[in-house]
Amino acid sequence: MPDTAPAFIRPRDFSFTFEESQAIKGLHRLEPDLLLSRGYTGAYLGLYATANGGSDADHADFDWVRLGFSPLNP
């Protein structure tokens, strides 16, 4: 994922995407039961980086996160 690409989190289906040019490509999809637990009904927001099984020695730094909301069905 390019350093300047904005990431979009779509919690309605627990999928994570990033935008490169005009095409949106999926990064990962989670099963809802991995995020849900008994007793907690709030929201989760987390950042995660992976080399997708490769032996990349690089790393990811997240200095800040901007969270915005938009209508589900614009």
Overview of the structural elements:
There is one protein chain. The protein contains no helices and three strands. The chain is mainly beta. It has one domain (1-74). It has a three-stranded antiparallel beta sheet with strand order 1-2-3, with no helix packed on it. The relative contact order is 0.15. The model has no long low-confidence stretch (mean pLDDT 67).
Write the layout of secondary structure elements.
Elements: E1 7-10, E2 15-20, E3 23-29
Antiparallel strand pairs: 1-2, 2-3
Strand order of the largest sheet: 1-2-3
Q: Distance between the terminal alpha carbons, to the nearest Å?
A: 26 Å
**Alpha plus pi helix count:** 0
What is the residue-averaged pLDDT?
67
Helix content estimate: under 10%
Strand content: 15-25%
| Morphology | extended
Radius of gyration: 14 Å
**Class by helix and strand content?**
mainly beta
Order of helix and strand elements from N to C terminus? EEE
Largest sheet: 3 strands, antiparallel
Poorly predicted regions: none
Number of domains: 1
The tally of beta strands, per DSSP, is 3
